[in-house]
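REQUEST ID: PR-0412
SUBMITTED BY: lab tech R.K.
PRIORITY: routine
TASK: structure prediction, single protein chain
INPUT:
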Amino acid sequence: MRDIITIPLNSEEFLIIASDNSGGIGKKAQDHVQVSYETVAYYSFRVAAMECIAAGGVLVSVVLHNFCGDSNWSELINGIQKGLAELNLEDVPITGSTESNFHLQQSAVGLVVLGKKVMDKKTEKIYSNDLKFAVIGMPLVGNEVIDLAHQIVPLSIFQEVSKLEDIMVWPVGSKGILTEFNQMFPTKEFTKEMLETKLDVLKSSGPATCFIIAFEHDQEEDLKRLAAGYFHSVTVK
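STATUS: complete
OUTPUT:
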């Protein structure tokens, strides 16, 4: 199952709700990873937005929960706006709240993305031996996200791939590629040995630094061109 909630709005549309959070990442002395709050918010937005878009949603709003202090609100908003700009969605409204009564020793952020999906939009595929698979981007976590940022698939590429017909798109989270394969196709059980790729299928992908695609044979060359150097083939044995 995808990490979203789908709620019928009317006879034509669903509401898609996706979320992400981070803790111990920011500029406080006790944070485990030291980065700007713009970076924190950008990657939290990235995760929730990718989940929403992969499920067929069109973003309509972003909700920010800030536990980093009042003074960091604008920097967090800048990170969200950076992500929206990459998706050409600068007009999407942002709202939220800040914990201002108490000072936390570590940074914490929660983020919710709301989207709308038309009822007849298909985003799933049934597993078959005829399907082909690839991972776009590299699984990265922690300081790797900063040090190896050039290996993270851009949101713009993710958005373009998601627009293609007859393709299943699935962001990879902290439990890694293998776990996501089993989420994608719950009627089939995958093991590490079954997935042949140069990537580590057990490694955390942190803030969705990569995503899986399931596609038909005749789509491969177009996908390789679209994903450029971020394309990594996966063969299921």
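NOTES: The two ends are 23 Å apart (CA to CA).
REVIEWED BY: pending
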